[in-house]
Amino acid sequence: MKKYCLSLALFCLVSMPMLAQPKAKPGNDNKENTHGRTLDAESSVVTENTVTIKGQKIPYKATAGTLPVWNDEGKVIAGLFYTYYERSDIKDRSNRPLVISFNGGPGSASVWMHLAYTGPRVLRIDDEGYPIMPYGYEENPNSILDVADIVYVDPVNTGYSRILDKDTKGSTFFGVQADIRYLAEWINTFVTRNDRWASPKFLIGESYGTTRVSGLALELQNSQWMYFNGVILVSPTDLGIERSGPVEAALRLPYFSATAWYHKALANDLQQKQLEQMLPEVEQFTMNQLLPAIAKGSSLTATEKTAIIQKFAHFSGLKPEVIEQYNMDISTNLFWKELLRDKGYTIGRLDSRYLGIDKQDGGVRPDYNAELTSWLHSFTPAINMYLRNELKYITDLKYNMFGSVYPWDRSGDRTGENLRQAMSSNPYLHLLVQSGYFDGACDYFNAKYNLWQMDPAGKLKDRMSWKGYRSGHMMYLRKPDLAQGNQDIREFILNAVPKAGQAAKY
């Protein structure tokens, strides 16, 4: 199975008049903005602002601009848009961490984590992540800008990034391996232009962005000779790690159970427990009983089959007869339709806390992804207003929240193994994985399975960590998880930077 989770990290932002207005940096050489729908391969607009993080006022410089992608002959073939935040009261950047941030899709701009997670501005939403009016954005008191500089990168055809050479084929960019290759080259350009070779460096990716940064960790070492200190995977895909048949079917259950717990669809003995107290029991049943039972198939006795189905139903909130009808292989689509069918609701894909209403209660999949109707209407105005009004990047070019990147070549995805190789050959490299318990697209238990299969001998486990949150694909939309997720990243960065004189060796 290949899981390419659409990275819709969302947020409802628009202007907030209470925010301090950015000021142009004195003496900067900003290019005068002009209207038009063409992209310059190189451009930059610099503004200065502040954000208060954990009670400390942090001054920063924001650069919104583009840098070129060249082909092997040195011809500019594309321009990538980026937004770069530097804490401006620190002069020596040799010890200052740099975080390079990507979202996913493939085909998604970097807007989601930029304006809802780690950046200095965050969407105005309610505490559970639902839109409120008037839409807007505000200071992000949880941003990691206090401990690291951050650059958010839009791959080709996302955001303002575009192919500039009409003779260059889309296949140069649109595929697992092509994407990794050209972005590694671009990162080299960015790091060199901004004099960040000495800095501790980190990659963060969400959803398909986890596939991207896992591959980049090794590609940057092998082709650019650039070594990183950490990789952060937010809601990871399967990273090319094979799982199908009984394994694929069984691994869904812990997510089913977490979601049923959220909707109070479980029996009292489970419902009265804390989520984190209940899930280990479900995980043990999944690996020790359910997986072998599905693998045995028709060789199970009637008594054995009934016992497993009853326990599956107990942990999932589904009816035993439904589980039996599908031979214990319950697809996520069926689960989203079935769990609350009797109440007339469907549940969301990327965040299963969200409810939907279908035309008919019958069927085996929802009519739509319930969470998207809550999210998408506010994202586009937000980023356009933020870039124009606060970052002063003026253009008539359309900012592609999702761009055309198809056909996408999915062959050769060994990115989980790539990341393992990068960690094995770089003793400095650490890994943090963040998952939302209610994410049905890139679920938390499959993220754990990734780690087990990447490092079956356990030789890297001291540099691998996993964190779970009571939210969905974009766990940071829930206020407590926005704070905790950023704090987990902050601590990860500080712990992954080696002490002075600490050698990279085993």
Automatic annotation (TrEMBL):
<protein>
    <submittedName>
        <fullName>Carboxypeptidase</fullName>
    </submittedName>
</protein>
<dbReference type="GO" id="GO:0006508">
    <property type="term" value="P:proteolysis"/>
</dbReference>
<keyword id="KW-0732">Signal</keyword>
<dbReference type="Pfam" id="PF00450">
    <property type="entry name" value="Peptidase_S10"/>
</dbReference>
<keyword id="KW-0325">Glycoprotein</keyword>
<feature type="signal peptide">
    <location>
        <begin position="1"/>
        <end position="20"/>
    </location>
</feature>
<keyword id="KW-0121">Carboxypeptidase</keyword>
<dbReference type="InterPro" id="IPR001563">
    <property type="entry name" value="Peptidase_S10"/>
</dbReference>
<dbReference type="GO" id="GO:0004185">
    <property type="term" value="F:serine-type carboxypeptidase activity"/>
</dbReference>
<keyword id="KW-0645">Protease</keyword>
<dbReference type="InterPro" id="IPR029058">
    <property type="entry name" value="AB_hydrolase_fold"/>
</dbReference>
<feature type="region of interest" description="Disordered">
    <location>
        <begin position="23"/>
        <end position="43"/>
    </location>
</feature>
<feature type="compositionally biased region" description="Basic and acidic residues">
    <location>
        <begin position="26"/>
        <end position="40"/>
    </location>
</feature>
<keyword id="KW-0378">Hydrolase</keyword>
